Q: What sequence folds into this?
């Protein structure tokens, strides 16, 4: 039953898991600067995943990423929420651009 | 299909094999040495002949071994070099991991000290670069010896997670997962009995050599710390132990995943061996006791794993 749910509705499951992770990470950030750096790095990781799925667009991945961002916004204590959203988008765009232009190369698994 | 090795072998190796055959090809009524040079398998078939078996075996083994060494040295000269793409990934990984392990060293307490921080960061870069070089070189040489070319690949997501963890724990948690590797088949350099392409077992063994080299490197520094002990040497030991242990995680693209896919029994031996060796090197104990104990514990756990889990699966 649980396995079937995980297999069929994995996007919802990981949306929830990453949202909780986002809340915990945001709460653990001790200052606004750290909070901004963490979200920028998270954005870069999101950009990497978006680059990986660019040819086979899969909306579920975007749902999961947005889940993390929502969780992070809920848990943020220090810093502005607007800046956090901007930094996340900036990180994602920068990472996507670097991978797309082949300036960065790595492996996912 | 007839495969000619002449174009891909160095002259030194060719001469060596040629001369080895000249010794006895007339005596055994063999075909011309140039024919024999095409297939190293031929050496092994020859040794089953009843004529002077022992004598021939000694010559064959010696010559085969020497030819392998010459061949390996040639392969290292040709293929050891890191490609620009690899170097880029390696430099990024080194800087990020060095930043993680020197995160707490930018001043004393809550007072920020840029000068001390930069010095510690530079030291961390040296430690990380040296440790990565040992880990990757061991894998590279082993890969070349078994007919593959090893290529390091950075793991962006892993480095990102490690950075985030470092930030939220104030540098107290070191997650050292810089990347993995892929292998390329050196088809032209394959000599003799094996030429079936890439396989999981060989990749598993290549992967296992990396953490083993890191543990050996930590053991060397542990021995040195008996004579000269300072914070830098302690950091090298801790870093290499953690690097070896985290490499054993069965998460792609880390070494542990490749060992696991290489063989569950191999992983059942490798994981306890590396983890126990790491723990024993971390605590204050003689290096040889740590090495021996970790091997024995790994063998015991390996047998227990076989008896309680694996044996049933092997039954037909």
A:
């Amino acid at each position: 039953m649980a396995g079937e749910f995980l297999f069929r509705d994995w996007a919802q499951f990981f949306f929830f898991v990453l949202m909780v992770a986002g809340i915990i990470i945001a709460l653990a950030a001790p200052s606004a600067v750290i909070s901004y750096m963490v979200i920028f790095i998270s954005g870069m990781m999101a950009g990497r995943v978006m680059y990986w799925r660019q040819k086979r667009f899969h909306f579920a991945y975007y749902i999961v990423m947005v889940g993390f961002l929502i969780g992070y916004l809920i848990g943020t204590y220090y810093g502005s929420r607007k800046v956090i959203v901007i930094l996340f988008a900036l990180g994602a765009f920068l990472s996507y651009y670097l991978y797309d232009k082949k300036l960065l190369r790595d492996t996912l698994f | 299909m007839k495969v000619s090795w002449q174009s891909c072998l160095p002259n030194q190796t060719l001469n060596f094999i040629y001369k080895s055959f000249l010794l006895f090809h007339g005596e055994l009524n063999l075909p011309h040495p140039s024919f024999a040079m095409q297939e190293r398998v031929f050496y092994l078939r020859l040794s089953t002949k009843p004529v002077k078996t022992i004598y021939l075996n000694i010559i064959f083994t010696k010559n085969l071994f020497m030819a392998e060494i010459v061949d390996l040295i040639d392969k290292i000269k040709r293929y050891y070099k890191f490609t620009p793409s690899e170097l880029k990934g390696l430099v990024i990984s080194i800087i990020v991991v060095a930043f993680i392990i020197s995160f707490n060293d930018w001043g004393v307490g809550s007072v920020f000290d840029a000068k001390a921080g930069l010095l510690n960061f530079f030291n961390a870069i040296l430690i990380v670069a040296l440790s990565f070089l040992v880990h990757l070189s061991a894998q590279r040489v082993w890969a070349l010896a078994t007919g593959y070319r090893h290529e390091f690949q950075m793991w962006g997501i892993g480095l990102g997670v490690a950075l985030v963890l470092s930030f939220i724990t104030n540098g107290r948690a070191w997650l050292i997962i810089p990347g993995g590797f892929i292998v390329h088949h050196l088809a032209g350099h394959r000599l003799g009995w094996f030429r079936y392409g890439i396989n999981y077992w060989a990749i598993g063994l290549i992967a296992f050599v990396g953490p083993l080299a890191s543990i050996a490197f930590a053991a060397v520094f542990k021995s040195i710390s008996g004579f000269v002990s300072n914070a830098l040497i302690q950091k090298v030991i801790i870093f290499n132990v953690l690097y070896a242990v985290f490499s054993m995680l069965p998460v792609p693209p880390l070494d542990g995943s490749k060992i696991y896919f290489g063989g569950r029994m191999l992983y059942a031996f490798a994981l306890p061996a590396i983890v126990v060796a790491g723990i024993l090197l971390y605590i204050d104990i003689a290096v040889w006791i740590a090495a021996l104990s970790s091997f024995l514990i790994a063998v015991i756990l390996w047998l227990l794993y076989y008896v309680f889990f694996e044996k049933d699966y092997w039954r037909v």
Remarks:
- Chain A is about 75% helix and 0% strand.
- Chain A has one domain: 10-100.
- The mean pLDDT of chain A is 89.
- Chain A touches chain B at residues 25, 28-30, 34, 37-38, 41-42, 44-45, 48-49, 95, 104-109 (CB under 8 Å).
